[in-house]
Every structure is written in C-alpha cells, then in structure tokens.
TrEMBL record:
Keywords: Membrane, Metal-binding, Transmembrane, Transmembrane helix, Zinc, Zinc-finger
Domain of life: Eukaryota
Name this protein carries in UniProt: GRF-type domain-containing protein
Coiled coil: none
Pfam families on file: Zn_ribbon_GRF (PF06839)
InterPro entries: Znf_GRF
GO terms for MF: zinc ion binding
Domain GRF-type positions: 20-62
Native source species: Arachis hypogaea (Peanut)
TM stretches of this protein: 93-112
Keyword Transmembrane: yes
Length: 129
C-alpha cells in the first residue's frame, strides 16, 4: 500500500517537471501494445485528439534487470509459502477424511451390533438354543 502511494506521488512529481511540445503537462497513460502491455507512460494530452507533438516518456522502470530479479525472488518466496500451506491443508484434509471414515466404521459396527441384538434378545447366537 505504501509503495503504491509513493509510486503515485513519484508519478505526480514527474508530471510537474515534464511539459509536452504544446507546453502542457503530459498525462499518465497505459500501453496496450503487444510489446509493452500494461506498461505506463507519459504522453501528450492531445494524443489521438489533434496534432500530437510526439511527446513520450516511460513512467515505469525498464522491465528486467534488478527490479525483475527482486520481483522473481519475491514470487519464489510466495510460491514456497503457498506450497507449504497447501501441503499443510492436504495433511489436515487426510486427517479429517480418516476420522470421518473411522466414525462411519464405528457407527456401522454399533448399528449392526444393535440390529443383531434386537433379533436375538436372549443372547442366543449362531443357531444355538
């Protein structure tokens, strides 16, 4: 959250220093090209409206390099934590499944025992009288 606000303030301060060929402050836009999808840049306020002065400057740091390595490292740590959490949850699921199975076996045993005792109330078993 703090990095987003510092990034936003950096963008605003960059815009104050920049002026396009028309003497206007450029506006922050987002690239939709195949080579730079989602990358932010400063462009002329009259872009796609009238005579453009071809003002252009990237607002985001160049992809790759140190920034990309930091992001990869952070993502690797996140993946490792998520895998550990997944393994923990899978173990808990197996324990719950085993307890449910044991509960059903116990229930079935008690049910059948009660059913057998109802048919043979005097304790006579297996045809002995």
């Amino acid at each position: 959250m703090a990095s987003q606000s510092s990034r936003a303030s950096r963008f605003r301060s960059d815009a104050k220093e920049l002026l396009c060929g028309h003497g206007e402050k450029p506006i922050l836009q987002t690239s939709s090209t195949k080579d730079n999808p989602g990358r932010r840049f400063w462009g002329c306020v009259y872009y796609e409206v009238q005579d453009v002065c071809d003002f252009f400057r990237w607002a985001d740091p160049e992809p790759g390099g140190v920034q990309q390595e930091v992001e990869f490292a952070r993502n690797r740590r996140k993946i490792t934590k998520l895998k550990a959490r997944l393994k923990e949850l899978e173990t808990k699921l197996w324990v719950v499944a085993a307890l449910c199975f044991a509960g059903w076996v116990g229930f079935l045993f008690l049910f059948l025992q009660n059913h057998y005792n109802l048919k043979h109330p005097n304790g006579m078993h297996l045809g002995y009288r």
